[in-house]
Write a structure and sequence with these properties.
Its main location: membrane. The protein is of the alpha+beta class. It is built from three helices and nine strands; from the N terminus they run αββαβββββαββ. The protein starts with 5 loop residues before the first helix and ends with a strand.
Length: 188
């Protein structure tokens, strides 16, 4: 065994240097970081917007159709029910709807609704204004013939509503869309 020296006492009395991060040990920093990530993950899980369930309830005629050989114009209100599964209510700045003929996929109308409030965990009915306006290429245009058949023989026409929502606070990154099949008829 080596004899003790003057310096051996000084070496033993030096404090052991431990690594640290922000005045606490690295283990505590890692645990805090993991807890923060778990908290952010849980918050996103509960607050991330889920697409609501949209049900088509019916169509009301607002203005009787104007029909001639080259154009068709009518105004309708589509009644839709939106079931919001989210834990946070939504304020919809704008909802744009486009109406397409289901057979030919031709754009036949559009509409816009503004300032809609969708409460959390609730079903709400909304009225979407739709203007069906189609300018044809003459009386031989097949789309004009299909639209005319709505009122003259009274044949319902299958159509599709495609809508997009501008949700307040999310519209710069996320704009939910939905499509619903409807039937356009003429007032009796």
């Amino acid at each position: 065994m080596a004899p003790p020296t003057i310096f051996s006492y000084q070496e033993r009395s030096k404090p052991v240097h431990r690594r640290s991060c922000c005045c606490c040990t690295c283990l505590v920093c890692v645990i805090l970081f993991v807890l923060i990530l778990v908290g952010i993950g849980l918050t996103l899980f509960f607050l991330w917007p889920r697409i609501p369930d949209v049900q088509y309830m019916g169509l009301q005629t607002v203005k009787a159709p104007e029909i001639n050989e080259q154009s068709f114009r009518a105004s309708y209100n589509a009644i839709v029910q939106i079931k919001n599964p989210n834990v946070v209510g939504w304020t919809v700045n704008r909802m744009e709807t486009l109406v397409y003929d289901r057979t030919t996929d031709a754009l036949i109308g559009n509409g816009t609704a503004t300032d809609l409030v969708i409460p959390k965990k609730e079903a709400t009915n909304f009225t979407l204004p739709i203007d069906v306006r189609y300018e044809g290429n003459g009386k031989d245009d097949p789309e004009i013939s299909r639209l005319r058949a709505i009122c003259l023989p009274g044949t319902p026409m299958p159509a599709t509503i495609k809508a997009q929502l501008w949700i307040k606070g999310l519209d710069w990154i996320y704009k939910p869309k939905f499509n619903k099949d409807i039937t356009i008829t003429c007032p009796k």
